[in-house]
Amino acid sequence: MTRLFLLLILLGPSAQAQANTCHSLFRERPVPYGTIPISGYASVFNVLDFSGDVILPGAFKESLETRPFSQIPMLSAHDASETIGQWTAVREDGYGLYVEGYINPRTSGGNRFLQMMSRSSTAGLSVGFRTLTATRPQPEVREIKTLSLWEISLVNRAVNPLSSFRLDDPASPALIPFRPKDPPDWLHLFF
Q1: Rounded distance, CA 79 to CA 74, Å?
Q2: Which of 34, 37, 150, 162 is nearest to 87 (CA)?
Q3: Quick one: which of 136, 132, 129 has its CA closest to 160?
Q4: Among 3.30.70, 2.40.50, 2.40.128, 3.20.16, what is the CATH number of 28-190?
Q5: 149 - beta bridge partners?
Q6: Confidence class for position 1, pLDDT limits 50, 70, 90
Q7: Does pLDDT of 124 surpass 70?
Q8: Alpha-carbon span 20 to 120, nearest angstrom
Q9: How buried is 63 (Cβ within 10 angstroms: 0-12 exposed, 13-18 middle, 19+ buried)?
Q10: Domain residue extents for the chain
Q11: Do 112 and 105 form a contact (C-beta atoms < 8 A)?
Q12: Do 70 and 163 contact (CB within 8 A), yes or no?
């Protein structure tokens, strides 16, 4: 960090201005000082999760139109007793439900979750919702067409195997690589 700061001083004001604007291009709302920014997919469409659900594209649309993302709590493992941060962006795209936000390490839940992540190589996202419309193409599979999104949790193991996030703070000791993944090889066994 110090080397970057010195390099920006040597390069002059235009490089400093460019560096300052680059960070702000990735977020819809600023991240407060002392928090840890995260981004990832809380749900990935058309994936059979471990509970037998498949969330279809457009399932979140109605819920996101009626409830702003600032009212969707960030929880640790669906524990509603304490929020551990704030979502700064929640939107559907062609891949799934994309989220950005920040973990507040000054909360006891945020601090516990970051400590757990530093000891574990697995972490994911999970959505808490109420199903509004769904079909059953097979007895053990439920395709969810519309839902009401209640909350988004950071979890140790996600029910949807492709739901994951990364910490966007390069100084963090618990940096988790994130990239949308192809479905695992075993997923075809369920269809």
Answers
A1: 10
A2: 37
A3: 129
A4: 3.20.16
A5: 129
A6: very low
A7: yes
A8: 33
A9: buried
A10: 28-190
A11: no
A12: no
What would the two tokens of residue 21 be? 């604007």
Six-digit token pair at 132?
């509004």
Checking if the pLDDT of 24 tops 70, the result is: no
Question: What's CA 59's distance to the chain center, in Å?
Answer: 17
Q: How many residues does the chain have?
A: 191
Check whether 92 has a pLDDT greater than 90.
Answer: yes
Strand partners, 44: 96
pTM: 0.73
CA distances from 166 to 25, 56, 119 (A): 18, 24, 15
Give percent of the chain with pLDDT exceeding 90.
51
pLDDT at residue 109, as a whole number? 87
Task: Determine the pLDDT at residue 64.
Answer: 95
What is the arithmetic mean of pLDDT over 156-183? 67
**Exposure on the CB side of residue 43, measured as CA atoms within 13 A:** 26
Neighbour tally for 122: CB within 10 Å: 11
